[in-house]
Amino acid sequence: MTTENGQNGKKSEGQLLAEKLCINKKNCWEEAGPEEAERIRLFAEDYKAFLDRGKTEREFTAETTALLRTAGFRDIEEIVARKGLEPGDKVYHINRDKSLVFAVLGSRPVSEGVNIVGAHVDSPRIDLKTNPLYEDGDLAFFDTQYYGGIKHYQWTAIPLALHGVIFGSDGKRITVRLGEESGDPVFTITDLLPHLAREQMQKKASEFFVGEDLNILAGSRPFIDEKVKEKVKLNLLKLLNEQYGITEGDFAGAELEFVPAHRARDIGFDRSMIGAYGHDDRSCAYAALRAALETAPIPEKTSVCLFTDKEEIGSMGNTGAQSRLLEDFVAGLIVGSSGADSGKSSDISLRRALNRSSMLSADVNSAYDPNFDSVYDKKNASYFGKGMVLCKYTGSGGKYGGSDANAEFYLTVRSLLDRNKVAWQYGDLGKVDKGGGGTIARYAAALGVEVLDCGIPVLSMHSPFEVISKIDLYTTYRGYMAFLREA
Ligand code: MN
Ligand code: MN
Predict the structure, then answer these.
(1) Same domain, yes or no, for 363 and 352?
(2) Which of 16, 93, 356, 467 has the most C-beta neighbours closer than 10 Å?
(3) Which ligand is nearest to the CA of 120?
(4) Are strands 114-120 and 358-362 parallel, antiparallel or unpaired?
């Protein structure tokens, strides 16, 4: 013990009382020894590589599936058809290549409830319009529609890569991933030079770069033939036809996404942070995935991970959290079980199972940024280096449209984390009436599941280069693992 507290090294009465009664959240780095620091570093290395391979919901789903298969997970229908589900079985269901759910069967029947960690694997980005290609001023562009809540100006004048799928008129599926390898070309959205930006600079940030102006520069070399107009566009179509076998009409219905072309990188002299595209919400998804891979061989309760799509635009559609993906999967677990549940499948057994289930809604939280102090309530904000964030409620304008965890369940989670020595902190989203947001929590809660938002603090959220702390990533992974193992 240090002697800073008095002549004899003893703490004063007030100090002891303060220790007992006041909140004192330490920076986790202070507690991590060299071995722990090395585990944190290695975990971050794995995460960065995974993130670079999974930059879209489809890619992240494919990468997750590959890792699951290596770890012995199999398609649920394959297992059920072969033998029926038993404790210890590892199963997944992939939903239209964009969302997925996977589970490790526990020793207790599914009808007694499951433990779920639910994240989303889509991130803000720039999508193509249905008929995107045009030429203007001897330049060829793609016209776009942005996806999710972005500050438009942040996506200009940076290298962008093109990812996605497009179908030829013959039905052939073409997978595109261009701008990621060092020899690849990239794309960009041009911005106005400061010299001519006097008018632009007077506008509000929401107006000086409007969504309609997010046009992607895609070519400048003409096809040489005096008899055609729009020579640059024609040359581009010629190249696309040679390379991918597509024509202009094939863009209709395609899912092509422009994402930042940069890779995940360490930030800072101390390399304590990671800058990357898509921490929201793939940092939480990855933490959950790793936790699920390392859960007990046969957990008591079945552990489930849910990775959804479309969260950034409201969780709609048959790949979003408002779909029946989770319900259908849990029903499949009940129907497929060969144990106590066998033959007992019914609507009510599914509803009971969901009502007895718990979920950590795994999503990122807005970390306190001293550069924008005015929007944060410092005593209720989350901080880098202080561990996994528990966010009791979301929503905006009086919790409107959010999810509010039950006090009982909050206690369950916080006790579980304390028991497992997992550092956790609070994280309300900014000062009252400064804004707000939501997660997938409310959709699971509507099914009767106990839900609490828990995740990783992030800076520059929804920008092309979001930042997280390595120790928060690692701590959150440990938190999800504790939950999947023993909640
Ligand atoms: Mn999110
Ligand atoms: Mn988001």
Answers:
(1) yes
(2) 467
(3) 1
(4) parallel
Phi, psi of 389 (to 5 degrees): -95, 130
pLDDT digits (tens, 9 = 90+) for 165-194: 999 999 999 999 999 999 999 999 999 999
Domain check: are 296 and 347 in the same one? yes
Q: How many domains does the chain have?
A: 2
State how far the Cα of 31 lies from the Cα of 67, in Å rounded to an integer.
31
Q: Are residues 53 and 80 in the same domain?
A: yes
Q: Alpha helices, DSSP H only, in 259-363?
A: 279-293, 325-336, 347-355
CATH of residue 332: 3.40.630.10
State in Å: Cα 308 to ligand 2 middle.
12
Cβ–Cβ < 8 Å for 220, 142: no
pLDDT confidence band for 7 (50 / 70 / 90): low
CA of 228: how far to CAs of 218, 224, 252, 418, in Å? 19, 9, 24, 71
Is 21 part of a structural domain of the chain?
Answer: no
Confidence of residue 295 (pLDDT cuts 50, 70, 90): confident
- 383, 368 contact by CB (below 8 A): yes
- pTM of the full predicted structure? 0.95
Determine, yes or no, domain membership for 49. yes
- With vertex at residue 476, the alpha carbon angle to CA 163 and CA 96, rounded to the nearest 5 degrees, is 35
Query: Among all ligands shown, which has an atom nearest to the Cα of 284?
Result: 1
Q: What is the pLDDT of residues 36-56, one digit of tens each?
A: 999 999 999 999 999 999 999
> Are residues 481 and 343 part of one domain?
yes
State the average pLDDT for the chain. Answer: 94
The Cα 174–Cα 233 span in angstroms is: 21
Nearest to 466 by CA among 281, 208, 215: 281
Measured from the alpha carbon of residue 362, the closest ligand is: 1
Residues 6 or more apart whose CB falls under 8 angstroms from that of 358 comprise 113, 115, 116, 409, 412, 449, 450, 451, 483, 487
* 120 CA from centroid of ligand 1 (Å): 7
What's the Cα-to-Cα distance from 35 to each of 42, 286, 360, rounded to whole Å?
11, 22, 28
124 CA distance to ligand 1 centroid (A)?
9
Tokens linked to 136: 């203007």
Residue 184 token pair: 């690849």
> Domain containing 166 — which CATH number?
2.30.250.10
User: What confidence category does residue 344 fall into, taking pLDDT thresholds of 50, 70 and 90?
Assistant: low
Q: Are 109 and 337 in contact (CB under 8 A)?
A: yes
What is the domain extent for residue 93? Answer: 28-123+277-486
